[in-house]
Design brief:
Length: about 240
């Protein structure tokens, strides 16, 4: 299995990440990627990029050094209604990709029901295309209900390489998520969540997990640029 699209990376626009757009593109290329998502944290988080960052992503070409650049954001889920910190901000409506994630911020962590409702609300948001790192040990939720809702709304669920690599992931839950994705036909999106250029496109842990679970390639978005762009509604 070959992953050629990394949908989740950060740049200097978030202070706790350390590379530029060009550096991320360079390592995307070195690591065999054909497309890369730029998904810096949104303004609601303590270290999110300024709103103008997202508004001005239009200055970036769609292709840099032969790599398709997908202009996006990683939004913060705020509560159990699934409200996002990007709600009502016009520039976010123009993004090519919105990942919605729960971070250790706002009302989180709470209990399983609260987290489940937070995800269900975020999934219903029309701009949200991917649920980010649903593997976090601190935020348990009803896996089957959320994966089923993702299928119904055309949202993908993320396999986050950083979580696997850095030991943040609840491995049993990741396996349950993949099993439920197979059962309901829900797409999985692979993202490194790189905060430094050298991590971009580095998917060893994700590939090992997908192989261990014998996960069907047809449900992985990142094996084809066309498949990913089609899923995001960006196909020409
Ligand atoms: Zn995140
Ligand atoms: Zn991230």
């Amino acid at each position: 299995m070959k992953i050629i699209v990394d949908t989740h990376t950060h740049t200097l626009a978030s202070n706790h990440a350390f590379s530029t757009i060009l550096e991320n593109v360079e390592y995307a290329k070195r690591n065999g990627m054909k497309a890369i998502g730029f998904t810096d944290h949104t303004h609601g988080g303590e270290d999110g990029a300024h709103r103008w960052h997202f508004k001005n992503l239009k200055v970036l070409p769609s292709v840099i050094n032969d790599i398709r650049v997908i202009k996006g954001a990683e939004a913060n889920i705020l509560n159990d209604r699934g409200d996002l910190d990007i709600d009502g901000v016009e520039s976010y409506g123009k993004l090519e990709l919105v990942i919605a994630s729960i971070h250790n911020d706002y009302d989180f962590p709470q209990n399983k029901e609260y987290h489940t409702n937070a995800y269900l609300g975020a999934i219903a948001h029309p701009n949200v295309k991917i649920i980010g790192h649903p593997d976090d040990k601190r935020f348990d939720f009803d896996v089957e209900a959320v994966v089923k809702a993702c299928k119904e709304s055309g949202t993908a669920i993320e396999l986050n390489n950083s979580s696997l690599k850095k030991g943040r992931a609840d491995i049993a839950r990741v396996k349950r998520i993949l099993k439920a994705c197979r059962e309901f036909g829900t797409y999985v999106s692979c993202g490194t969540d790189a905060h430094f250029a050298m991590e971009v496109g580095s998917f060893a842990e994700s590939i090992a997990m997908l192989e261990e679970c014998q996960f069907p390639e047809k449900l992985i978005l990142n094996t084809s640029v066309e498949k990913m762009l089609d899923f995001l509604g960006l196909a020409e």
